[in-house]
Amino acid sequence: MNQTTGKHCILELFECPSELLDDEQFICRAINSAAEASGSTLLTLSSHKFSPQGVTALGLLAESHISIHTWPETGYAAVDAFTCGTHCDPVAACRLLTGLLEAKRQARTVLQRGRGVPLPVANMASNSSCEDTCIPMRPPAAYG
């Protein structure tokens, strides 16, 4: 059966206030709020404050991840929200983060991940070879 593995929202935020982008605690709270908005389960949150400026934070979700990388000197933030399954909405996380980071401009791409990948792979007997039971992986037709 062919289905989609998950949804991936890639977000670029421009003209954000530098004081927000350089505030590690604020960025962590934003990820926590984004996880909640998407309906996902935040397992752990890790962050790093760079010198002289900038923050990278990663929220590890039961369903995948949300990350934010900031460049306060240019007002730019790169956001990644990926969730597997159908009960979470990473686009909701991206919408919330656009508002929280007060972006004046944004560019957003949403990908359906794993489209066309047969899931789940049938149970393999321990003595079978992959040639007997696995389906070869090929890039989607759009990639030639």
Automatic annotation (TrEMBL):
<feature type="active site" description="Proton donor; for catalytic activity">
    <location>
        <position position="84"/>
    </location>
</feature>
<dbReference type="InterPro" id="IPR017716">
    <property type="entry name" value="S-AdoMet_deCOase_pro-enz"/>
</dbReference>
<keyword id="KW-0865">Zymogen</keyword>
<dbReference type="InterPro" id="IPR003826">
    <property type="entry name" value="AdoMetDC_fam_prok"/>
</dbReference>
<keyword id="KW-0704">Schiff base</keyword>
<feature type="active site" description="Schiff-base intermediate with substrate; via pyruvic acid">
    <location>
        <position position="64"/>
    </location>
</feature>
<keyword id="KW-0949">S-adenosyl-L-methionine</keyword>
<feature type="active site" description="Proton acceptor; for processing activity">
    <location>
        <position position="69"/>
    </location>
</feature>
<dbReference type="GO" id="GO:0005829">
    <property type="term" value="C:cytosol"/>
</dbReference>
<keyword id="KW-0456">Lyase</keyword>
<keyword id="KW-0620">Polyamine biosynthesis</keyword>
<comment type="similarity">
    <text>Belongs to the prokaryotic AdoMetDC family. Type 1 subfamily.</text>
</comment>
<dbReference type="InterPro" id="IPR016067">
    <property type="entry name" value="S-AdoMet_deCO2ase_core"/>
</dbReference>
<protein>
    <recommendedName>
        <fullName>S-adenosylmethionine decarboxylase proenzyme</fullName>
        <ecNumber>4.1.1.50</ecNumber>
    </recommendedName>
</protein>
<dbReference type="InterPro" id="IPR042286">
    <property type="entry name" value="AdoMetDC_C"/>
</dbReference>
<keyword id="KW-0670">Pyruvate</keyword>
<dbReference type="Pfam" id="PF02675">
    <property type="entry name" value="AdoMet_dc"/>
</dbReference>
<keyword id="KW-0745">Spermidine biosynthesis</keyword>
<comment type="function">
    <text>Catalyzes the decarboxylation of S-adenosylmethionine to S-adenosylmethioninamine (dcAdoMet), the propylamine donor required for the synthesis of the polyamines spermine and spermidine from the diamine putrescine.</text>
</comment>
<feature type="site" description="Cleavage (non-hydrolytic); by autolysis">
    <location>
        <begin position="63"/>
        <end position="64"/>
    </location>
</feature>
<comment type="pathway">
    <text>Amine and polyamine biosynthesis; S-adenosylmethioninamine biosynthesis; S-adenosylmethioninamine from S-adenosyl-L-methionine: step 1/1.</text>
</comment>
<keyword id="KW-0068">Autocatalytic cleavage</keyword>
<keyword id="KW-0210">Decarboxylase</keyword>
<dbReference type="GO" id="GO:0004014">
    <property type="term" value="F:adenosylmethionine decarboxylase activity"/>
</dbReference>
<comment type="subunit">
    <text>Heterotetramer of two alpha and two beta chains arranged as a dimer of alpha/beta heterodimers.</text>
</comment>
<dbReference type="InterPro" id="IPR042284">
    <property type="entry name" value="AdoMetDC_N"/>
</dbReference>
<feature type="modified residue" description="Pyruvic acid (Ser); by autocatalysis">
    <location>
        <position position="64"/>
    </location>
</feature>
<dbReference type="GO" id="GO:0008295">
    <property type="term" value="P:spermidine biosynthetic process"/>
</dbReference>
